Amino acid sequence: MKKTLLVLALAFSAQAYAVQPATANTVIDFESLAHDQEIAYLDAGYSHIEDGFSVSTLATNFGFSVWGSASPFFTGSTSLINDSDSGLTRLSQIGGGLFALKSIDLAAMFPGLGEEATTVTFTGLKSDSSRVTQSFSVAASGVQTFSFGSEFTQLSSVTWSNDAYYTQFDNINVAAVPEPETYALFLAGLGLLALARRRRSL
Predict the structure, then answer these.
(1) Among 57, 79, 80, 157, which residue has the fewest nearby CB atoms (within 10 Å)?
(2) b/e string for 14-48 if b means 16 or more Cβ within 10 A?
(3) Residue closest to 189 by CA, chosen among 23, 18, 22, 21
C-alpha cells in the first residue's frame, strides 16, 4: 500500500511538473524571419507560428513583411509588419489555450521620416467572452516597449490594427495560462506525496 501511494504520488507530481513550463513567459521575437536585404519583402505569409503561438493577419490582399537588416528602417531586431491598410492582426495560442499578454515592442514602419505618432489599440477576447482594450501611442522614431494591464489574462485571442500609419511589432511577451485541471493535478500530487511521507514515518 505504501509503495502504491508513493508511485501514484510520483506519477501525479511528474505529470504536473511536465506542464509547468507552459506557465513561463515566452517572447515571440520573429528572428526566424531575419534577412539581410534592404527592402521589406512581402513573402512572410499571412501567419507566423512560433513557440506555440500564432500571429496572423485577417486581411486577404497583403500579408506580413519584414525589414531586412540593411534597411535604414531596421530597428535592430527583426519585427513583423502588417502590410494591409488598417489590417487586423490576431494573436492566439495554438490549440486554443488561454494566455496572458505581458508586453510588446512597437515602432513606426518608417522611423525617422517625420511621421506623426500613431495610436495602436489592442482588444483581448477573454474566456468568458468579455473584452478588454488598451491603447498605446507610438512615437515616430525608435522602438518602445509597452506593458499591458493585469486584466490582459485568461485571453483566447488578442487583435490590433494599423491606425493612420503602419507599425512594426516585435518581442511579444506572453504566458500560457494552465487549465484548472492542471492545478488540480498538481495539488493531488502534492497531497499524495504528503500522505506517502506520513505513512513512511509511521
Answers:
(1) 157
(2) eebeebeebeeebebbbeebebeeeebeeebeeeb
(3) 18
Q: Where are the domains of the chain?
A: 23-178
3-state secondary structure of 77: coil
Please tell me the distance from the alpha carbon of residue 146 to that of residue 158, in angstroms, as a whole number. Answer: 15
Q: How confident is the model at residue 87 (pLDDT cuts 50, 70, 90)?
A: confident
CA–CA distance, 89 with 28 (Å, rounded to integer)? 14
Class of domain 23-178: mainly beta
Q: Does the pLDDT at position 23 exceed 60?
A: no
The kind and range of the H/E element at 149 are none
Rounded-to-integer distance, Cα 155 and Cα 29, Å? 20
Residue 198's pLDDT band (boundaries 50, 70, 90)?
low
Mean predicted confidence (pLDDT) in 131-146: 94
79, 143, 70: which is closest to 111 by C-alpha? 143
- Return the closest-CA partner of residue 156 out of 91, 104, 102, 105: 91
Do 177 and 153 form a contact (C-beta atoms < 8 A)?
Answer: yes
Quote the longest CA-to-CA distance of the chain. Answer: 76
Between CA 137 and CA 81 the distance in angstroms is 17
